[in-house]
Amino acid sequence: MRSAARRRPTSSPKAPRWSVRSPRWPSIAASATWCANWSPSASRSAKRNCPAAPQAASQRIKKTALAERLAAEVAGELEAFLGRQTLAELDFDALERAVRQQVLTLAGRFLQARLNQDTSDYSGPHHDCACGAPAHYAGRREKTFQSVFGPLRLERAYYHCPTCGHGFFPRDRAWGLEGSSLSAALQRMTATVGAMVSFQEGSLLLKQLAGVELNAKRVERCAESLGAEVAADEKQNVEPMDPTPVPHTMYLSLDGTGIPMRPVELVGRAGKQPDGSAKTREVKVCAIWSAESKDQPGRPVRDEGSITYSAAIESAATRDTDPHRSEFTERVLREVTRRRFTQAQRTAAVADLAPWIWNTTRELLPTTTQIADRYHVKEHLSNLAKALYGPGSEQAQTWTRRRYEELDSGRFADLLRAVRHHANRHQEARKCFQYLHHNRERMRYPKFEAEGLCTSSGVIEAGCKNVIGTRLKRAGMHWTLEGANRIIALRCCILSGRFQDFWERRSEVRKAA
Predict the structure, then answer these.
(1) pTM score, whole prediction
(2) Per-residue confidence (pLDDT) for residue 63, from 0 to 100
(3) Burial tier of 277 (Cβ tally within 10 Å: 0-12, 13-18, 19+)
(4) Are strands 167-168 and 308-312 parallel, antiparallel or unpaired?
(5) DSSP assignment, residue 313?
(6) Distance between CA atoms of residues 348 and 250, nearest Å
(7) In angstroms, rounded to a whole number, what is the distance separating the alpha carbons of residues 43 and 237?
(8) Are 312 and 331 in contact (CB under 8 A)?
(9) CB-CB contact of 370 with 358 (8 Å)
(10) How far is it, in rounded angstroms, from Cα 349 to Cα 335?
């Protein structure tokens, strides 16, 4: 076995005896003391007590030197950690978790000390306030922030404006800490888990994966706060930023799906409940993608990474006399602009036959090819067969199969004739006939296939499920309008691959402020 008295570098204190199986953290007091004492601007007495301190007060240590020093401190702690046992004695799971926590703790103390030595956020006795008047310097104040390294107690310059009565910390603004007790990186981490899973599950994931303890309510507040910023950013940043060439063909799909709401959000709204009340409100979803690749039979396949989403609980309805477009129509226009949809050589809209979808498409994109989702059309025919001949009957199956063949082969006149045959004595047949006749131009499937176009809206169907359903339609969930739209905005941003762009814009705005 290795010696229990293994010698460490003379600049570090001897580590206390401890065991992975019965852990006691090795002391990092000396490391923390060094971090707190060392600084290019530290006093002479402090430097004399720090063996690695610079000899000249004006000397600036490069960032690489800081990294090397921190690495040396970490290496020393880990050497003490591993040097007292054989590998056979180690519980590797406990070892990994203990080492990770130790490194984070040491890095957090180093970072705290280094940041508190920097007083560059003091810009003189006065600082411009948002109200336009000068704010007065009122000293440095401490606040504990939760970070990915653990709690950090930071000192920041504070300015108070006697004109408007408000105070502010310039460093908090620049670092994205204003109005929050979470560091910027932890805000980002927390908002991400809050957007992807329930707030309670997000709290558990943060603890298990990052060692950060935040209760579900703090996860909710953080996710919804950042979601509100994402929603505002989506409206302001419309210009396309993607430098890649526009695909030859681009597709647009619109759809809606209901989510459960709190009763206060449903007052006075009609719904599908037996008493005419509503339990849900509809989220309208816009998806844009490309499908340049083909499968083995030659059918178009959605290009990986090409799909983007934009969604909200918004109205798509407008009257002819309204001076402005509906909220959702404006949303679709922003997404079309961002994706440079109209710059593609060919564009198509694929969706089910809800009137609001085609009214929106016709208003914004009158030259775009309109395609009815083939599976929705076949569903209507299947439902009619069940109504005519009974569910599961052989006659219903035979009738349905023949209608499918007529639809797929382009024998639309035969299809209409077969449906119309039952229209005089069956209301469902009359509705289906009107449905087919009114949308016949959107059902020219042999022509669409010959042109290599998609005829299925599976992308938007999956989008409604993945973007909305898996997060907002789980058992026991009931949303407020504001909370739902914020989480939806955050999910669309993340799942569309735009979160990093948003975060960079956010950081630039805060630094400029």
Answers:
(1) 0.81
(2) 59
(3) middle
(4) unpaired
(5) S
(6) 7
(7) 48
(8) yes
(9) yes
(10) 14
Strand duo 249-260 + 346-351: pairing: parallel
Are 322 and 283 spatial neighbours (Cβ–Cβ below 8 Å)? no
Tokens representing residue 46 in the block = 């402090």
Residue with tokens 């955050």: 490
- 3-state DSSP of 382-438: HHHHHHHHCCCCHHHHHHHHHHHHHHHHCCHHHHHHHHHCCCCCCHHHHHHHHHHHH
CB 326 within 8 A of CB 317: yes
Non-local (6+) Cβ contacts of 482 within 8 A are 224
- CA–CA separation, 415 vs 403, rounded Å? 6
Q: Model confidence over 137-195: pLDDT tens digits? A: 999 999 999 999 999 999 999 999 999 999 999 999 888 888 889 999 999 999 999 99
- At residue 510, φ and ψ (nearest 5 deg) are -70, -35
SS3 assignment, position 446: helix
- Token pair for 295: 């499968």
Of the candidates 344, 291, 282, the residue with the CA atom closest to the CA atom of residue 314:
282
In a 3-state reduction of DSSP, which class is residue 51? Answer: coil
Torsion of CA 110, 113, 118, 119, to 10 degrees: 160
Q: Who's near 26: CB < 8 A, 6+ residues apart?
A: 15, 16, 18, 77, 80, 81, 102
Q: What is the CA radius of gyration of the chain?
A: 31
Long-range contacts of 1-6 (CB under 8 A, 24+ apart): 1/85, 1/86, 2/83, 2/84, 2/85, 2/86, 4/84, 6/79, 6/80, 6/83, 6/84
| Backbone φ, ψ for residue 331 (5° rounding) | -65, -45
Number of alpha helices (DSSP H) and beta strands (DSSP E) in the chain: 19, 11
> Percentage helix, strand, coil, to 5, in the chain?
50, 15, 35
pLDDT for 89 beyond 90: no
